[in-house]
Write a structure and sequence with these properties.
Elements: H1 2-14, E1 19-22, E2 25-28, H2 34-44, H3 61-64, E3 73-86, E4 93-109, E5 113-128, E6 142-155, E7 161-172, E8 183-193, E9 199-207, E10 218-227, E11 231-237, E12 239-246, E13 249-256, E14 260-268, E15 273-286, E16 297-314, E17 317-334, E18 344-347, E19 350-361
Antiparallel strand pairs: 1-2, 3-4, 3-19, 4-5, 5-6, 6-7, 7-8, 8-9, 9-10, 10-11, 11-12, 12-13, 13-14, 14-15, 15-16, 16-17, 17-18, 17-19
């Protein structure tokens, strides 16, 4: 019913848009006026991620591409170690090790339909004696994020691409401990072709556990622009850019409002080796199993600068090694970002080291 309702809304809006003659064709303009445009942009400001991951872990470009069947299956493992960092205003330090496994599995593909499975588990292990200043609570020894879902894509006879992504998500210290640490995240994406490979992109997202507008479907909008292999971008919120300024160089940017940004500049040194510089600004939140306030979350924010090498060991096997510096890192308890000055712990900057191994596969 949600898909049909969204479809009816889009049909109702697009059939009322003003038209313009282009040669022998009559096309509908995407926005009737500047007022309509600003209204849609305002709605887009509250758009949240398509998948329950931060921008640093997500490349939006493949999700917005017009062709089915291009993405290979993938299994990836990443480990990242945060070196011992001083906790401000406390006589204590914090070290952290993150491990992450992600799976993308194409289950079924035909000329107009595609069904994919997504899965992932991430674990953060802390070594610290820190206490939050107001509540005197300790940071859990371990935090986890479990996710399992599916995506279904369909292209109709008009070339409109529908992409529905659904996830069960459990970000907590005790996975699946009770119903209060499990949430649903669903996103519907509609790609309406416009002029060759360009398109109007519309989003509708529902989440039962996000910190703001919990349980409220939120819209988003963007315009996809593509010029060969040189540039592919979605202008809007979220924002995505894949730009190749030179044959061996590439800039990849993903921005998810309001505080998740990833930017990577890479250069192909040899056929098998790629060097890169990257900046990540990421956020995360967890639902602790023993919390007394159902809306309370443990929030974490940080920024990272890094340099690394990606090595192609085989056609679909890549090793990624990087080192960098993490800064502006802090934790706090609260319902949302507006509570960031309450019960907060700040960390000084420190070194990070990361390694990942990615296995791709295709059988079609």
């Amino acid at each position: 019913m949600a898909v049909q309702a969204f479809h009816d809304i889009i049909i109702g809006v697009t059939t009322k848009l003003p038209t313009r003659k282009l040669g022998n064709k009559t096309v509908r303009l995407p926005f009737a006026s500047l007022t309509h445009f600003c209204f849609f942009i305002f709605l887009a400001l509250v758009q949240i991620p398509i998948l329950p991951e931060t921008a640093s872990a997500l490349n939006l470009i493949p999700l917005l591409d017009s062709e089915l069947g291009n993405r290979p299956g993938m299994i990836s493992y990443r480990v990242r170690h945060h070196d011992r960092a001083k906790i401000r205003h406390q006589d204590s330090h914090l070290a952290r090790t993150d491990q992450n496994i992600q799976i993308f599995w194409p289950v079924f593909r035909s000329g107009s339909n595609e069904l994919n499975l997504y899965g992932g588990i991430s674990a953060r292990e802390f070594e610290t004696e820190l206490r939050f200043p107001s509540s005197e609570r300790k940071l859990p020894d371990d935090l986890y994020r479990l996710s399992l879902g599916f995506g279904f894509e369909h292209i109709n006879e008009r070339g409109w691409l529908w992409n529905l992504v659904n996830f069960l998500n459990s970000p907590t210290d005790k996975p699946l401990a009770n119903g209060d640490v499990i949430g649903i995240n669903s996103t519907l994406v509609l790609r309406i072709p416009h002029r060759a490979n360009n398109a109007l992109i519309l989003f509708l997202n529902y989440s039962s556990i996000r910190s703001s507008f919990k349980g409220v479907p939120l819209p988003g909008i963007g315009y996809w622009y593509e010029r060969g292999q040189q540039i592919r971008t979605m202008i809007g919120l979220p924002f995505a850019l894949d730009w190749r300024p030179a044959p061996r160089a590439k800039l990849l940017v993903n921005y998810i409002p309001v505080r998740d940004l990833s930017a990577t500049f890479s250069y192909q040194l040899t056929e098998r080796v790629k060097a890169y510089l990257n900046f990540d600004w990421s956020s995360d939140s967890y639902l602790l199993a023993d919390r007394t306030d159902i809306d309370e979350r443990l929030h974490s924010y940080e920024k990272r600068l890094g340099i690394g090498l990606q090595i192609a060991l085989a056609r679909f096997i890549h090793l990624d090694l990087s080192a960098g510096y993490v800064f502006d890192s802090y934790f706090f308890f609260g319902e949302g970002f507006e509570d960031r000055e309450n019960d907060r712990v700040d960390l000084e900057g420190g070194a990070i080291f990361s390694a990942s191994l990615n296995f791709g596969f295709k059988w079609w």
